[in-house]
Every structure is written in C-alpha cells, then in structure tokens.
Amino acid sequence: MLDKKNIIQQEEKAVLVGLVHKDQTEPQVKEYLEELAFLAETAGAQAVKRFMQKLAHPDSRTFVGKGKLEQIQEYIQGKDINLVIFDDELSGSQIQNIEKILGVKTIDRSDLILDIFARRAKTAQAKTQVELAQYQYLLPRLKGMWKHLERLGGGIGTRGPGETEIETDRRIVKDKIALLRRKLAEIDKIAGVQRKDRGEFIRVALVGYTNVGKSTIMNLISKREVFAENKLFATLDTTTSKVVFENTPFLLSDTVGFIRKLPHHLVESFKSTLDEVREADILLHVVDVSHPQYEDQLGVVNSTLQELKAHDKPVITIFNKMDQYEKNTFDPWLEEEVKVEILNELKERWENELQGNCVFISATERRNLDTLRTTILEKVRDMYKIRYPYKTAFFY
Ligand SMILES: Nc1nc2c(ncn2[C@@H]2O[C@H](COP(=O)(O)OP(=O)(O)OP(=O)(O)O)[C@@H](O)[C@H]2O)c(=O)[nH]1
Ligand SMILES: [Mg+2]
C-alpha cells in the first residue's frame, strides 16, 4: 500500500510556486508564499526560491503556464533542489505533468499541511483524524501517485501499474476510509461521554489562527504546561483545564489553530476535536496583532467558525503580542505622545467594531493580564446567570 506519511525529509530544499488569480493582488500572494515558507520550515524543509505568475485561471494541465514551468526547470537544473511546493491544491494529473517536466517531487499546500499534522498527531483521535484526511485526499489522486512513485523508483515494477492495479488500490483506500470512519466514531462516542461527565460548568474555548499564542495564554491562565513554540500547528489535541477566578470555576480549552486554505478533508475529520469549540459557551478569539496580515487571519477564523456553526457565541477578542506590535510600529525617534496616540487609535477602532468585547495584551511579557482576567470573569458570570441561574449564588 502507498505510504503518504512524512513526504518531506529533513533538510530538504524547496522551491515555492504561487499563482496570482484574477481576484488577488501580488502583495497578497507574496504574503501567502511567506506563510507557505513557514509551513515548509515547520515540516523541516527550507524554501530557497519563490516563483509567482499572474494568470486569470490556472492551467488545467500544469497549473502554471508552460513558460513559467520552463523557468522553474531552468532554475532547478544543476542545483540541489528536492521539492517543489504549490500554494494551491493540484489534481493528480497536474502533479503527474509537472513532475514529468521538472523531474522533482511536487506537492501542494494541502499535502504539506497534512504532512505536518501527521507528524504532530499524538493521541489516537488525532492520528485517526489525520489518517482519514490523508486517505481522502489520496483517493482522487491515486493514478498520479503511482506514476510519482514509479519515477522516484519507489519500489514499484518498471512497467508501471495497469488500470486493474489502480482499481484494486482504489478499493483498498475506500475500505481503509470506511474503517477509519468507524474507528473515529467509536473514539468520538467515548470523548462525547467524557465531555458530558464534566458537570455544570461554563465552558470557554481559546480559538484563533495558528501561532497566535493560544497555548501560551492557556498556560498563563490555567498554570498548566501546554506545548507552545514558534512553529505552525504546535497544538493538535484539545486540552481542557478547570480554572477558578475569584471563586468562579469554569472549564478552559486550548484548540487546534486555523489557517487559510485548510484542506477541506482535514476540517471534516477534525470536526470532533472542534466539538469543544462548537459546544463552548464563550469563545476567546486570540489574534496576533503584530502580524502584518492579522486582519485577514481574523477573517479566516471567523469564516471557519461559521463553517463549524459556532459563530453566534459570545466572543472576547484577545489582541496578543502587543510587545511585538510596538516593536514593529514604533520608530525609535517617535515621541511618547505619538506612540500613545497610535495605540489609542488601534484600541478605539477595535473597541468600536467589537462593541468593547476585546483586550490588548502581551502574553510573554505578561502585560494587561489583570484586565484579561476581569473581562473573562465578567462574561463567565453573566453566562452562569443565563445557563444555571440557581447556581450563581455560590460564586459570590
Ligand atoms: N512577542 C510575543 N510572542 C508571543 C506572545 N505570545 C506568544 N508568543 C510566541 O508565539 C509563538 C506561538 O505561541 P503558541 O502559544 O504556541 O501559539 P498557538 O496559537 O498555541 O499556536 P498553534 O498551537 O501552533 O496553533 C511562541 O513562540 C510564543 O512564545 C506575545 O505576547 N509576544
Ligand atoms: Mg497551541
């Protein structure tokens, strides 16, 4: 059987390719490639060169135009490049055609994200979810995969597979998908029961784009050690802690981060992990305000929440990494008053837009954490009054 795990080896050198479609701008795609480079780095590969092309529609055979592909081939020739990564999802035949011309392993953004998830999955639930998404992604691309392995000499006979072999493989993959679905349903049942057993507590979930600081904040609030690092998707499994603020207890969960163009199958199979988000009473939406694209990221998170049908819950938006924001924004010669003015402008703008439901903090420098605590506590107490009115008397 084909093994799609760990398609990227350590220290591989990669070339990135992005298309500027008709409703995108060049700076946008530059930024997308920046994120793709970070994803590649997270998977252990190094992005050494980026190519972009303006095309109204992707080429059905080779995704980018023929001229661009020749340009990429020219660059690769004679260099130590092992990998080409496209920022958009490619079809099986496109991968096949591109590899034929370039002669190196070609993958897309979904492949890369799936690879990272596969490495990071620790629990049975996360592992099963990732495996399911990998096989679903593989199913329509089986033919291309065979060719791919054949060219790379991946242990397949020299003649290559016939239609019957591909058909057999398709059946095996379909069976595997059915099996994983059943296994996941079992795991979900147990997890669901465990969640119900938690009693009558208000449930708060940290959500947000990947790498914004959710786990760091979780650690600060719950005094727990959740793995946090400057890589994408450090967290795949949900962790939940009981927290008590001024006699008021609640449950706090840290969740997997979102990203632009998250492979559809991955969202599908991570639905059960995201039950924590769906069943939460209050969401803490963490934003990395120091990121140049933080508004786009905020939009991506909101649309993913919509997809999960979790968009009409009370939300506190936490603008995190204010320390880094100031470093990026303030020139050293700026006067103190001007700095204050810039900060006030940012705060006023978002306070207006979010009806005051936001806080500005730095988790690593522990700035403004008291305000964060008070804001959460107020919301949690309001929620107890609505959900469990007979209980609230105990908390004051
Ligand atoms: N400068 C600065 N860095 C921060 C701050 N908060 C978190 N970080 C850093 O941002 C990086 C990501 O933090 P995490 O807490 O792992 O982020 P996350 O949102 O849990 O990320 P995923 O689980 O990967 O989605 C780490 O290197 C943190 O040290 C902050 O307030 N300021
Ligand atoms: Mg995390």
- CATH homologous superfamily label of the largest domain: P-loop containing nucleotide triphosphate hydrolases
- Fraction of residues in helix: 40-55%
What does the radius of gyration come to? Answer: 24 Å
Distance between the termini: 61 Å
* CATH top-level class of the largest domain: Alpha Beta
Strand count, sense and barrel status of the largest sheet are: 6 strands, mixed
Record the strand order, biggest sheet: 6-7-5-8-9-10
What structural category characterises the helix and strand content? Answer: alpha/beta
Choose one word for the global shape: globular
Number of domains: 3
Bound molecules: guanosine-5'-triphosphate, magnesium ion
Low-confidence stretches: 1-5, 151-159
CATH architecture assignment of the largest domain: 3-Layer(aba) Sandwich
Written as H for each helix and E for each strand, in order along the chain, the element string is: EHEHEHEHHHHEHEEHHEHEHHEH
Beta-strand percentage range: 15-25%
Please work out how many helical segments DSSP would assign: 14
Organism: Pseudobacter ginsenosidimutans
Binding site for GTP: 208-215, 233-237, 254-257, 320-323, 362-364
Main location: cytoplasm
GO cellular component, one term: cytoplasm
